[in-house]
Each structure stands twice: as structure tokens, then as C-alpha cells.
Automatic annotation (TrEMBL):
Protein species of origin: Arenibacter echinorum
Domain named SusD-like N-terminal: residues: 45-240
Signal peptide, first to last residue: none
InterPro entries: SusD-like_N, SusD_RagB_dom, TPR-like_helical_dom_sf
Family: Belongs to the SusD family.
Main location: membrane
Localization terms from the record: Cell outer membrane
Domain RagB/SusD: 370-509
A GO cellular-component term linked to this record: cell outer membrane
Transferase listed as a keyword: no
Name of this chain's protein: SusD-like starch-binding protein associating with outer membrane
UniProt keyword list: Cell outer membrane, Membrane, Signal
Gene3D superfamilies per record: 1.25.40.390
SUPFAM superfamilies noted in UniProt: TPR-like
Length: 512
């Protein structure tokens, strides 16, 4: 395993750049139409037949497969998964004007025609996940024949299967039906697959996740930041919960608990990555890796989640940078009054998740806004930080397992719920156990891209968002509109459980 080198140091070589270009060139849906009938590959050129040979080659390729996840979670996915729910909204800046792509997502007013939309964030998430899938497919198509160490081969293959399963899982939850690519795309015709049904997609996701579990090492035996057997088990358990296969979910999630590879961090706020420390901690099951600096591995999502306008001094008070810059435009993912009220009295997670800052030049009331505190960490460079993004934490394993048991009327659900509540400083739940678990997920996993998926899978999305939209339209000031400003006329007029497919892809695929 020593040859599987760090995720954060492998992307600077020219060879890595060339393999990215090679894979991108093979994607019919990302490349322009051209004649691709070359069949001769000189031994000194970089091509699929000459590249995928050594452990180093496959290590570089799997490193590249993780890369699009950084872009997905840095901006667009939090808009689609959190700001499209009742957890966060945008902070209207009437001096700036409209930012339609974000506002349309928050307001459930995304223009669509025949199941197609031009929204840029929808496009970004869709295309980026297919980049992950394309890179995983290239590895999976070549690795079985490679003459490399068996343990390295299993590890790389397991990671590729996990990343493909994870990508299709999010695509299925966001869009419902999408093309199912399981082989490398080498021409335009190969890119134009029909839309697979949700049953077909989930069948493949389950198959990939199961295979990944058998190939991947435990967290304690894996290099930090990479997919593990526990991550694949958690993904599979999540899939089973979405599919309401409660018994299967219980079995696989119980295996994660019984592995003793994970524990809750004693303090909730310590479950989240620092800028350069506390990454992949004992509660982390899988998280997206970022690193501050000039090598392109950094994040900037904290800045996307701030109200505007902010002076340089006000930005500095949040970020701790030595060169803070003023922010203008419109702030996104601002915690709503709804999520703030969702915390019970005495819940320690509230102050660990939400803080307040002053935007002195704002037109909204006194300019004191709530912001997401989970990702506020001091860092050196303005607009450039290294906090990791949590995808799965052990607390979610406990809550998914509790839900699976409760749905089967089995004992133990309340015990797992209690573990999560105890850390939050809360006593026993009250009322219906199923509702208590659902509500617990909201506050435990707030701002981690879970809320919209939970609303959809439980059949609550339409009713919850309709009521939420009515509250915004009736009381816009409560939702960060300056006095005299009102929601647009099309706000909350297109509430659906699935996103329309991106228009940019429809020109390449007649099945859209």
C-alpha cells in the first residue's frame, strides 16, 4: 500500500495532466464531434493502451477520479441539496440585482421545458458526476488485466466502484432517471444512451457498493481520505433506506457499528474538519478532501455562504485571513428561521452550527445575519481554505440504523437515537419515535446536503416546501428581504421532487 500516495500531492505532474486530457477527450458528451478512428498508439505516447499498466498509473487515475467531487461540493451541490430545502435561503441584496441561477433554486422557480433546464448549477452537478463516472469506468475497464500487486488492485478497484456508486446515487436522487454508463465512452454515439429507470440505476448502485465493500480495507488500514469498506457499507445502507429495504439497511449499517472503526467525537463541533487539522477524524466515514494553497486543491465554500455586501474588515472577522477582500453580490445558504427554530432548548449543536455576523452595509434590518458556523475556520489566504466537506459521519450511521429498526418495529432504535442526543446535551425524545428520528436528522446533519434528499425520500417535499414558500411570501422580512422588497412573482411556482435534466446535454443525447 505504500505506493498509494497522498491524494493531495499527486496532481502536479505533467503525466497527471495528460491523463486527464486523455480521459476528457474520450468523453463523447464532453468533447466536440470529431473522427476518432486512430488505432495505432506509439509506445512512447500517452494513451489508454500504454498508460494503464503500473501501480503508479492506476494510483494517479484513481486520484483523478476524486477530483470533480471538490467542485461539486464547493458551490453547486449545497445549493441543490440545502438551499432548495427549508434549511437555507439567499440574502437578497437589492443594490446588486438578480442572481437567477441561485435564486431559482432557492425559490423553486427553475425554468424548464420538456424536462430540460439551463440552470448552471444543475448542469455543474450533472456533468461533474459524470466526470467521476467516466474516470471510474476507465479504471474498471482496464484494471483486471493489469499486472500489479493484488492488494493495490483490489483497493483501487474498490475505490472506483464506490465513487461510481456514490455518483449515481446522487444523480438518481436529484434527477430520477439518467443514462447508465458502465463502459468508457469513446464516441458521440456511445454517449447518447437512453435514460435508465430508477430501478435500473439503484440495481447497479447496490451491485457496485456491495462489490466495493469486499475490496476496500477498513478505515484503520486505509490511507486517510480514501474510500473504505465502512464508507461503502454506509452508502449501501443509505441506498437501502431510500429504497425502504429496511432489513437490508439494518444488516449493513449494523456491520459499520460492530466494526468499532468509528466513534462520535465527544464534542459536536469537533466532528468537522479544521483548515489543516482534525481531518478524517474518528467520526468521519467519508469526506471530500480540500487543502489550502496555490495547487488547486482548496475550497472556497465558506465565502459562498456569507451575506453580502461585506466590508473587508467584516470578512476578516469571519475568516481570520491577513488579506481579506470585500464581498458583493448575493449571499447564499443563509440559515432560515425555520432551521433555527428546529433546535430544542439546550441543544449544543445550535451554537456549534450557527453564528451571527454583522453586514453593516446591508439593506436588511440591522444587518445581523445568521451564517453556517460548521465551516468557519481561520485560514491564511482570502477565498482559499482547506476545510473538508463531510459526506458521511458516524452519527448518520446511527440515525440511519435507528430509522431502519423503527420502521421494522424492532428494539434498539431509541438507543441509537439516544447516543446522538446525549452528545447534543439533550434528554430523551418525546412523541413519535419515527418523527423524532426524522427531526433529529435535520439538526444533526444541518448544512451537510441531506435535507432535500430527506424531504423527497419521505414524501414530504411538496407539502413542506409549499408551506415554507407561503411563509416567505407572507413575511419576506423574516427571510432576509429588505423593507419594500418582495419575492419574485414566480417564487415557489415550480415545486417538484426532481430536477430537470441539463439543456447542455440534450443537444448530445436525443433521449432527453
Amino acid at each position: 500500500m505504500s505506493k498509494i500516495i497522498s491524494l493531495s500531492t499527486n496532481f502536479k505532474t505533467e503525466k497527471m495532466k495528460k491523463i486527464f486530457y486523455l480521459i476528457a477527450a474520450m468523453l463523447g458528451f464532453l468533447a466536440s464531434s470529431c473522427d476518432k478512428e486512430l488505432t495505432i498508439f506509439p509506445e512512447d505516447s500517452l494513451s489508454v493502451p500504454t498508460f494503464f499498466k503500473t501501480e503508479e498509473d492506476f494510483t494517479q487515475a484513481i486520484n483523478g477520479t476524486y477530483v470533480p467531487l471538490r467542485g461539486i461540493n464547493n458551490a453547486s451541490k449545497p445549493y441543490l441539496a440545502e438551499m432548495h430545502s427549508d434549511n437555507t435561503y439567499y440574502a437578497r441584496n437589492t443594490a446588486f440585482g438578480a442572481t437567477d441561477n441561485q435564486e431559482d433554486i432557492a425559490d423553486h422557480s427553475i425554468p424548464s421545458d420538456g424536462g430540460i433546464t439551463a440552470n448552471s448549477h444543475v448542469n455543474n452537478v450533472y456533468v461533474s458526476y459524470y466526470e467521476v463516472i467516466a474516470r471510474a469506468n476507465q479504471i474498471l475497464a482496464t484494471i483486471d488485466e493489469a499486472d500489479i500487486d493484488a492488494a493495490v488492485k483490489a483497493n483501487v478497484k474498490g475505490q472506483a466502484l464506490f465513487l461510481r456508486a456514490y455518483s449515481y446515487f446522487d444523480l438518481a436522487q436529484f434527477f430520477g432517471s439518467v443514462p447508465l454508463h458502465l463502459e468508457p465512452v469513446v464516441d458521440r454515439e456511445g454517449a447518447a444512451l437512453p435514460l435508465a429507470s430508477e430501478d435500473e440505476l439503484y440495481g447497479q448502485i447496490i451491485e457496485d457498493a456491495k462489490a466495493a465493500i469486499t475490496l476496500l480495507p477498513l478505515k484503520s488500514q486505509q490511507q486517510p481520505g480514501r474510500a473504505t469498506s465502512g464508507a461503502a457499507q454506509t452508502l449501501l445502507g443509505n441506498v437501502y433506506v431510500v429504497r425502504k429495504q429496511w432489513g437490508e439497511a439494518e444488516t449493513v449499517l449494523q456491520q459499520v457499528v460492530d466494526s468499532e472503526e468509528y466513534m462520535l467525537m465527544p464534542n459536536y463541533e469537533d466532528a468537522f474538519s479544521g483548515n489543516s487539522d482534525n481531518k478524517n477524524n474518528m467520526e468521519s466515514v467519508f469526506e471530500i478532501q480540500y487543502r489550502e494553497g496555490a495547487d488547486g486543491l482548496n475550497g472556497s465554500f465558506l465565502y459562498n455562504f456569507l451575506p453580502r455586501p461585506l466590508t473587508a474588515e467584516e470578512v476578516g472577522l469571519v475568516t481570520g485571513t491577513s488579506n481579506p477582500q470585500p464581498l458583493n453580490g448575493e449571499g447564499n445558504n443563509i440559515p432560515t428561521p425555520d432551521i433555527i427554530e428546529a433546535y430544542e432548548d439546550g441543544d449544543l449543536r445550535k451554537d456549534a452550527s450557527i453564528m451571527y455576523i454583522t453586514a453593516s452595509e446591508s439593506f436588511w434590518e440591522d444587518g445581523i445575519y445568521p451564517i453556517i458556523k460548521k465551516y468557519v475556520e481561520p485560514h491564511a489566504l482570502n477565498g482559499n481554505h482547506g476545510m473538508n466537506w463531510p459526506v458521511y459521519r458516524y452519527s448518520e450511521v446511527l440515525l440511519l440504523l435507528a430509522e431502519s429498526l423503527e420502521e421494522q418495529s424492532k428494539a434498539g432504535a431509541a438507543d441509537y437515537l439516544k447516543e446522538v442526543r446525549d452528545r447534543a446535551g439533550l434528554g430523551d425524545y418525546s412523541g413519535d419515535l419515527g418523527e423524532a428520528i426524522f427531526n433529529e436528522r435535520r439538526v444533526e446533519l444541518a448544512f451537510e446536503n441531506k435535507r432535500w434528499f430527506d424531504l423527497v425520500r419521505t414524501g414530504r417535499a411538496i407539502n413542506v416546501i409549499t408551506a415554507y414558500g407561503n411563509r416567505i411570501k407572507a413575511n419576506p422580512i423574516d427571510y432576509y428581504y429588505p423593507v419594500g422588497a418582495e419575492p419574485r412573482g414566480n417564487a415557489f411556482t415550480n415545486i417538484t421532487e426532481r430536477y430537470a435534466l441539463p439543456a447542455s446535454e440534450s443537444s448530445l443525447n436525443p433521449n432527453f
